[in-house]
């Protein structure tokens, strides 16, 4: 893609870098107090959540381990309806308080499959944190414990979120223009 085409798909900014940083800092304080003295494992769902994970884990003032999973559920802008786990965490999660760190909950399909799988391994506790929540698109019954931002039904890019693999490196969250 050339630079002009690349730019022409970036719409208005929905959430600025400053707004993201401010919310992460609040949540970081809250989690640092809540999990102080407890073995904590943050599990990120790749690829989309890698930027959020990097900032969220650095907002914590307590020790924690980091794990990664990979789940595929999207092609272009439409959910395929199926979820494939292509990479699993290496830790024995029964020894940890687990927080799933997700970029966005849309239909909820991906996270409902992942949560069921992880809960079956009996972590000490289990929480879901998502940067973004699109509740109007939900097709399964799934609520995050913490959503940093609730957004309307828009396809968005940036801060880890992609359109066909591109735009993850934008430092803010924008609407994607077809
Ligand atoms: P689900 O529909 O809740 O299963 O969402 C699955 C995945 O789709 C999310 O983790 C994102 O990676 C991706 N996704 C959902 N909505 C958007 C969007 O607006 N922009 C980019 N990726 C999205
Ligand atoms: Mg994701």
How is this structure best summarized?
The chain is of the alpha/beta class and 178 residues long.
Shape: globular
The CATH architecture name reads 3-Layer(aba) Sandwich
Mean pLDDT: 93
- Structural Rg: 16 Å
Listing every helix as H and every strand as E from the N terminus to the C terminus, the arrangement reads: HEHEHEEEHEEEE
Q: Please give the count of helices.
A: 4
Question: What is the structural class?
Answer: alpha/beta
Largest sheet: 6 strands, mixed
Q: Would you state the CATH class?
A: Alpha Beta
- CA-CA gap between termini: 14 Å
How would you explain this protein's 3D organization?
With 178 residues, this protein is an alpha/beta fold. The chain has a single domain, classed as Rossmann fold (3-Layer(aba) Sandwich), CATH 3.40.50. The chain contains four helices and nine strands. It has helices spanning 3-8, 17-34, 50-58, 109-119, and strands at residues 10-15, 40-46, 65-75, 78-87, 97-105, 125-133, 146-150, 156-157, 173-176. The strands form two sheets. The chain has a six-stranded mixed beta sheet with strand order 4-3-2-5-6-7, sandwiched between helices. 29% of the residues are buried. Bound molecules: inosinic acid and magnesium ion.
